[in-house]
Amino acid sequence: MAPPGSLNNLVYVGTYTRSNRSEGIYVFDFDPATGKLSQRSVTPEMDPSFLAFDPTGRYLFAVSEGFGLDGGEAASFAIDQHSGALTPLNRQKTGGGEPCHLTTDSTGRWLLVANHEHGSVAVFPIEENGRLKERSDLRQHHGSGPGPTQQGPHAHFVTFDPEERRVLVNDKGIDHVVLYRLNTQRGVLEPNDPPFGQVHSGAAPRHL
Q1: Which of 99, 103, 138, 181 is deepest in the core (most CB within 10 A)?
Q2: Where exactly are the structural domains of the chain?
Q3: Whether residue 194 has pLDDT greater than 90
């Protein structure tokens, strides 16, 4: 993915490191004339499989796909506006294993994270300096589906609708697109009415 703003010829790539064939988050120069990518830097991180920029392009957030209730983390990095290099800021526990997707709102004040292993969604306030505050909410999904990988909930994707009135979470374990409203005064997700959209049985929705 490419950051907004002046660093738009740089590409940031998240990876899985558990195979020991990659080291973390890679930054590449992109040549639009040839399509060539040239590695510029790498920042060590454990299984940063998904990345998201804040709206200003000054900060980058990454999942760290640890297992277990205490294994998953969200990490924050500052982006050097000249070199594009990343400087680690801090990290917070997501309250679930295998966090696999995250997003910010348009104000850059809130980070939402989908925990795949345990089927939950975490909310983090973001400080003005890009650091993540402690988790302000954790919403646990419940249920199952008919497929062999649907013995329980598995949140796989989280996003805001275009007007940011609702939060949509694809849970591939329960065949729901779960709907919330983000209460920005309290930093919590409140159930929407209706609380979810139903997809066909066994669809295991991953992305929107």
Answers
A1: 99
A2: 46-198
A3: yes
Strands 59-64 and 155-160: unpaired
Q: What is the pLDDT of residue 197?
A: 97
Pull the structure tokens for residue 75. Answer: 């990490």
pTM for the model stands at 0.94
Burial bucket for residue 124 (CB in 10 Å: 0-12, 13-18, 19+): buried
User: Long-range contacts of range 121-129, CB-CB < 8 Å, 24 or more positions apart?
Assistant: 121/155, 121/158, 121/167, 121/169, 121/178, 121/180, 121/189, 122/74, 122/94, 122/95, 122/96, 123/182, 123/187, 123/188, 123/189, 124/74, 124/92, 125/187, 126/54, 126/59, 126/76, 129/89
